[in-house]
Batch of 3 targets.
Target 1
Amino acid sequence: MQFINAKADLVTEALDGLVASSGGTLGRLDGYPHIKVAIRADWDRSRVALVSGGGSGHEPAHAGFVGPGMLTAAVCGEVFASPSVEAVLAGILAVTGEAGCLLIVKNYTGDRLNFGLAAERARALGKQVEMVVVDDDVALPDLPQPRGVAGTLFVHKIAGAMAERGDDLATIASAARDLIPRIASIGKSLSTCTVPGSAREDRIPPGKAELGLRIHGEPGVEQIDFEGADEAVATMAARLPESDADRVVLVNDLGSTTPLELSVLTRAVHRAGIAGRIIGPARLMTSLDMHGVSLSVLDLKEGEAELLAAAVPMAAWPGMQTLAEPQIRLLPDGLTPIAPIPSENPRVRGVIEDVCALLIAAESDLNALDAKSGDGDTGSTLATAARALRDALDRMPLADLTQLFPALGNEVSQTMGGSSGVILAIFFNAAGDASASGANARMALRAGLDRVGQVGGAQLGDRTMIDALAPALDALPQGIDAAAQAAREGADATASIHRAKAGRAAYVPETNLAGHKDPGAEAVARVFEGLARALA
């Protein structure tokens, strides 16, 4: 399902939404549904007009870049379909004055024919029109007609800046033609796209990525094993031409790559040394909801960096930045706790190692359980902390519970994200305080649990880890087997608690919780069951 009304109205309604939210900076031509053209509302025809466009589905390109310093008009076709000759001609005639017009066209047959014929008709009407064709896709280096993809935006921005400062048509067209051979683009995706009204084509199997997949969802050059963000960037970089020039890279989200992923990819771009300047990462020329990324590079000549850096008011354009090494600042004094004196206790070490191994092995199960009531990361959160704790055992005071409890609290506070890390840090630090006051291990842990209830507000029956931890600690005087059984019964009972009163599950509908155990309580039960086996 998609947030659309009728497929036939998708592009016109989307264009209306863009114009409505522009604050009056954009307008559109009459002529729906066949003529769909976004134009600058403030255009006075005194300067060279820049017109681009093509099939819709690549938003924000091209209509999102209509404004001062970039495009004067964008001619929109249906999804992945070139606009008609009449639509392109309407766009040209609406914005072209004596200074003339430059058409910036991506190298697709439909776009070349429709924009080219519209240019001829405009010239016949006395308009001064030039056309440039962008062919930046290097996925197939021997292809006689490479396609135009996200590198087209370099031409939009540089030509747009030149037009904004008043350069004439001949100068702008010549600069664009000189620019295009220095642009190269390559894309990689983990999925195809969902064309409105059609089912997604599951062409790319799990574990694979498609290299060279283009902006209409066409098959790529080859399917290769996916081995992470660094490898993805390295594979794309290897297809880009080598150069010692001052180079800028445009990092483009093809539709559904998350900001977190884009930042990881940008780190890989920086480490790969592809360019010294960057535009993005951002959604600039998408392929609907494709889960992919493309890299476009431009070898800069004198003055072009300033044109790319010139500010424009369109929110879709992210601007250009210089890639730089992160500035690392020292941690503030007092933030890092005093490191305890390491000590050895093979039995304690073995118990902790067993618990860590158990939590790591339970990662997928706990994530699946958490997906019913939260965001599906409980298992990963606990497994991450378990791996870190396992690696930190050599510096732990294993022979002294008074020091070990707060050391465990400090460790999980640094390695476990979310509320779980804070809760367990409070739990272990409070247990350490009680142990230092003479409490035995069970009493110390019970004191830690009481402190968690005071600070976090959760109580027995609220559908949290407390529902397993409290009965386990109460049963501990009868032995670890009794504690494990009590923890298991408490965890299982959370499946019948359909309304949580604390934690993330408190915001989840009761129907989602019914029949599913709380993942925190399940983790506690598994830990006590593991302890029972280890201490048998």
Target 2
Amino acid sequence: MSTTTTTQTVDAIVIGAGFGGIQATHRLGNEFGMTVKAFDKAAGPGGTWYWNRYPGAMSDTESHIYRFSFDKEMLQEDTWSNTYLMQADILANIERVMDRYDLWQYFEFNTEVTSAIYLEDAELWEVTTSKGDVYRAKYVVNALGLLSAVNLPDIKGMDTFEGEILHTGAYPEGKDLTGLRVGVIGSGSTGTQVVTALGPKVKHLTHFIRTPQYSVPSGFRPVDEAEVLETRENFDAIWDQVKNSAVAFGFDESTTPALSVSEEERQRVYQEAWERGGGFRFMFGTFGDIATDLEANETAAAFIRSKIRETVKDEEKARKLTPTDLYARRPLCDGGFFETFNRDNVDVVALKETPIEEIVPNGIRTADGTVHELDVIIFATGFDAVDGNYRRMNIRGRNGIHINEYWDGQPTSFLGVATANFPNWFMVLGPNGPFTNLVPSIETQVEWFTDFIKHAEDNGLASIEPSQESVDEWTKTCSEIADMTVFGKVDSWIFGANVAGKTRSVLFYVGGLKNYRDILKDIADNDYRGFELRSAVAASVAA
């Protein structure tokens, strides 16, 4: 018995139902009238915020700017209760956008795209799903998620554990761990949130930390109606400031060098930022050279270290929690992380002193012979960031080249949105996109490349793709800027260093959102320089 696969043809395929996939689908389908088919392997929209349902999951961008800005009417209807949005709040807002623009009609959920292969003769992409369905489309938009490919370390004995193993990036909704013995591995943003949320609830919590982190208070607090109304009245100015700033977190970045003021003034500024809250605000809103000058960086690091020692009453716990290297990873903030370790039921294990030897049936054994007895192990070990999801798919461009072969250890792009040898193929937050508050960056990229797609359609172009020279030049630019900062001097997920076996490489443009937006505008204003534009007429002649 034979089965016949029917191939459906549409104008564009969108992969992913997070912020990027939703906006791309809305623009292409609703605004430009193109036929669009969109997929997500999850059972509903939300992207990262669909999967990350762990206790304490929260954005570290303030509530009023962790949302789309393109619908001014919706902004006037939006409301929020706290300075930051919890996971459920973000998901509810995303679903509201889906309803408002009737976007459900475009999406097929519980469906993973397994391959996307460029057919050169037809100048179309052939996309296959986990259900075996085949689609062809002129354009493919990859909104796969910057932080969505789960990174689960390979630790000896994992299969022998008699308890439950969880990962924060695929956390069961409503999972109750009250009264259990819990181990949390990982000390980034997610790890600090989980520990802070679970510490008061579980019987015992052991936090396994390889690299202690610099974290400052989040400043999480209730927001009253008057504050919401005032924000609504000023949204135009707020969004203008966000899009013309560097990190796009809604505050003015400082230009004052840390060492240009007295020690007393420096401490006052840091204390004020500590009380106000916000990780990016502390790093970029206090002084202008914390991220670029080693001496300035040390002044901020020393202040945070002093706060850790002041907060954590047990000296040994404080020692294990206090970082000693540069303040040069993604700026973290928390809702009482260090205070949590003042509880008798919360402990910390320094993995560089006593590494994990293996997971045993009743817990985790460390190199000193101690067996930490556990009912649940939570991996807060982050993601194979930026390029991880691409590498897990069968993506082939011109001449059948696989994306893994093309990237060969270092993911590259032009502008973080497209790359050579992959025509009409766009990425949201692809390699070497801007390192900022993500939603404004997503909006910037989606607006730009969907306008580019419309330009291609209006001008009868068969294919658009960046030249290899443009990709190489952009990679060089991103590397040069990264080398001017402290971020490249430590190992972190920003450079792919959290994944075993992954080649360390530059993954972001750290030149700021305003500069990035200016570059995009200049390229569009100059006939999309850096891209090879192939007309449909030329394509038919060549055929």
Target 3
Amino acid sequence: MDSQHSDRFHEQSEAGIEYKTFAGVLEASQRAGKEQGGAQLDAAYIISKLEDVCSKRVQQFELRKNAGTRFQLSSTEEEHKLWQSESHTWLLLETLFNAFERQKPFSDKGPEALEWSDLDLIEHLHSTDSNFKHHSAVKSWLEVIAPVNITHIGTKRISPSAKPAGTLFSQPATTSTQTNYQDPDATTRDGVKLDEYNQRVEQGLLQAVWEYIRRGQIQEAKEACEKAGEPWRAESISGGDLYSVSTAFTDPKYDRLDGPIGNKTRGLWKGTCYALAKETTADQYERAIYGALCGDVQSVLPVCSSWEDHAWVRYNALVESMVEDRLSNFNRGGRSKTLPIPTTTVSNAKDIFDSIGNSDDQQLRNDSKDMFKTIQTSIILGQTDQMLTKMAREAKGASNNGAPLRPHMLRFMAHFVLLLRAKNFNVPKADGDFFIKSYVDFLISKRQYNIAPLYASFLPRQLQIETCSAYLKTIDGSKKERQGYLANIRKHGLDLHSILTATVDGLLEKNKSVSEGGDVKAGLKSSISAPTTAVESAQIKSLEWLTFETPQYLECLHRSNSLIRQYLAVGRLNAAFALYKSLPEDIAQFGPMGAMPTSLRQEHIYYGDLFAARMVLEQWRSLLKAQPKLGTSRTDELAWGMQFKKLAPATAAELEGLLRSKWLFDCILLGDDVRGQQLRKLRQIYLSELALNLHEVYFQSRETLPEFLEKSVEMANLIAAERDQEVPLHKELQDNGRLQELLSQIRLSSLELIDLNRSPFAY
């Protein structure tokens, strides 16, 4: 197998596994919920598990990418981005869920808020202000999903040729005497520059510190400065720590002493950071570091390269402004006229995404329109209902134009809708059902029959029936194989009875008979065992879906009787017989709660009587045809004669018994006009045929059984007799246009009796 085919094989295999993996998570949550008698789905469990599944897939793609095997030459890179975006989206949901439902309650610090520390005030704000909690959670999420690509941090060096006083710096050309530049402010204050190597090291450090801060890893940023030999920079970053009074841990291993921590003059520190951020001669990453620390936006934007970066810098400014407002309300820190702190125009989340979406940067505007970015934005803004309606409308339009929603996105949307519903969010019913049903249809198209019922169980009853019957109609295996597909439908509590009924009705509609205008007489001449057509075979096989369990017998009998009526009406006695044989022997004995309507049961029994009579008739015809010729041994003649003398009376009795019965007559019910008309027509056709068959048996058996000739004439009495409430047989034959045909046959019998000097009226 070449590498291209191998990659394609692995992608397809992984896709199938992923469908099952997602379904396994959903089913495990559903099962646990039912066992505990609580909610149907545990949203927190599902979000965490699905995020884990997606992040592992991202790792797999990154390993393949690093290996460099066909990553850029196929759709692998795009698929990688999809998995990464989905992972980020589940993580956003998990972050918000944890922020609002799993956060520890605020520890009461006492009634006097003025005595609380700065840290206490902000913790209380986080606990009581849902907006601050929400913005902080989104900011945290944007930090976690930032790419891990920390720049390598080098070590500055002193050139061996430089004099000790010169140390790390190169001197301005205008300086006539060498100045000792040892302090870190030298480059800004005096305009000197580091040598080329140390400039690169400095830029690398600044970029690394920015990347740490962008990811919310303040401690790592300080450690990077320490390792680079710039402890002063680490201290400058520490100024943002909120002031508090710590209590030592009782466990010595934590090694924390009692006393104040953090910065009591945080406002002054922020003003200093803001001044540094506005310093146009400073490196852009240094400006971004201090701009981010103080909550400025403009100084950080030049180093922002992604949608996430732009969202983070604005959320960072929003959170910092809310922190500052909170502290100012309690006269903490305070703003300095000499060193002002940033003021942001961002007042809410909507402003943030509007500013990004309306950016002058075309690439940023395009990124804002990415489907997963749109979903993430709607989650953050609490506008998932509007987003679902819009996406459903667009997906339906695209599908109509031959471009349905991509499988990856379809899978996400189905699970997203289920989770929103589990958390009682407002989900437009029709739009939510659209995504779930579309996913079920997709699973069916991929022959994922074992997991499709799980998702169908979340749909309204009618859609459950439509979706499950849709794939059952495509299964054309053996009866045993088809029975196996019903286990999962039953397992997930779906209406199996209605699904199977819809399946059969759909198949019968698909395989409609086209022989309604056939020649009935010609059909009746065929053997009852003649092969069925492909359409008839498909119709007969479709009914097997209703024969697997006795509760379906009633629906099966309704449809089998109806189909037999259709076959018999056009003379397809063989098809009717094939259908009859395919049914369970006890089909007419069981129904819902053990009750089977008498009319349905009796109709089925009558068809069995007809087929039994026809079978014995065909046996008699075969035996008649096998009558020994002249010259045959006497033994063979005697053997045949004994067999014929036994079979002919049995055949005549079978036929006459059926003619004398109420065949189908007592199945005709008031109010059931269509069925009643069909049954009356069948009586006309088959009672006429049976009468002619009976005469045939009598007349053709006369040589072996001479008394049968008289019986063939006596049939006139049977045909002419009145029958209580039933229609007389002569009327049935007359309405079917076969009375004259039978009378002609009886006339021949009479003439032959006369020729034999046996008057037909002598009896």
